[in-house]
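quick one before i forget lol
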Amino acid sequence: MVRSPLHVVLALGYFCAVSSGSPVEVLSASNFTVPTGIDDKGVLTFFFAPWCGHCKKFHPEYNTLADSYTPPPGVPASASPSFTKVDAVEEVALAEKYNVYSYPTLYYFPSGSSDGKAGTPVKYGGANNVDELKKFLDRQVTGFQVYEVDTVEDYNNFVGAMNEQLVVLLKSGADSNAAGVFQSIYLDVISDELLRRKTIYFGRVDGGADFGPGCESDCLEVWNKVTGVRKVLTEGALTKEGMTNFIVGVGSVMDPYASAMLSKSQSNSIVKRFVMVVSSPDQVQPIKEALVEEITSNHLGKIGATWVDPEETPVILEHYRLEGILPVVLLMDISGGAGTIVTKLVPAAELEGEKLVENLRNCYNDYNLSEKCSATPRARSEAAKKGNMKTIPIKKLVGKNLRRNILQAEEKDQFVYFYSLADKEEWRNAEEFNAMASRYQMEPTIDFFKFDVDLNDVTIKEIEVGSTPVMWFFPADNKQKPVRFEAEEFLNEHMFDFLWKQVTIPFKGYVTERKYVGLWGRIKHMARKLKRKFFPTKEQRLMLEARKVKTTDEL
């Protein structure tokens, strides 16, 4: 196979860059190793496929990052990683070893241990852009260390480190109980879903220093550089639980990243109640000020808040049916493990400081749902009421019925769109998919489905969704071998060309658009049926035997 010059793989590690001065080394089974020594650098490996449009698009950005990456302040330059890439189509054994089934897939291989054992690889789960990848790398190369802040200059450098981070500073003696507890909270803090996108800096100022947090005795200062919220926790609350809740609490006040988490069916975050402000930038400031004051004063670590700009994320309007009623505040609960519950919708007339705070206190009384805050009917825009917004008959699948609707429906092809509301391009992709589905909604041989990966777990082992959006085609005659839709852009015409090549039974509408497609399609379908009958795959044989057993049991 001839390699494309656009092939991409990321790798951080102790591999050295080679060939024509490129900072990215191409790896294969013969030279792929992972760091085992404690002094070895970490390795981030980007597995790609030559035909992957997302990989090609990301390649220039990745090369730029590989050439310019430097560790965060306080981390020695020697920790700067190496970058490599692996063609997963050619290196099948490597791809299978690390369960690479979708592209691009990135793994970070950390430094080894003092006894020569390799560390556990960490899979990258962020968006395919250089900013998110850099944040991920910063977290990996930093690891956990408490920076000793000894001078005023150290303090100014520490609290000024990078704008989109969380700074956590303990003022305490080195041998104090608080300092010991401080060392033990790291894993609890970084595993909280609200903070997983951030690099967190932990530092300690000696208790007798005349600089640092403004307290006379031991205290903890947390500064959310994203939102500007800066709070101090005093000596009496410096327990493990108290510090952890406090750090997560400050990190969750008006944090824009939190909106992506709120659509998930379960959350591992300490904060379970949320206020979501949906408003344009010019209207949001007074609302934010009222919420920040109330939450940081009375509900820190108990209630979080986030802001969504509907122009940046228009899909939020459809998801919560907010057309025509902005600005609006949603009071939410994610504590039940069954998905986000909108407990109350606060319209613009009630968004003045005192009224908003009153709504907040009434609904989250003792941090349990109040009966007076039962779900409010969601408003629709005037266009929707008049029927001007076309309804597309696309069935949404959930985790419990995904397998049944796909693998057990042998008489039809299925085309499934897996999406996340956190993706800013989701609404554009959804429009294209809806247009495609509407075009062929009357075809009896194919079903179109949508699947929200934030609300549900993917229960089909035959596919790996990875980063969204992604579309998979399940042929009627072989559901165990689905085909992934790949294109640089999710355009209607690209989907059309893809489906024309994949459908088991041709669409009736195709005959007028593609010459001879009807005859060829029927020949193709007959060949597949004969192959399934006389040369079935292992999966097809097992399904046939299972059917026979079921029929015998019923008799």
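fyi The chain has a mean pLDDT of 73.
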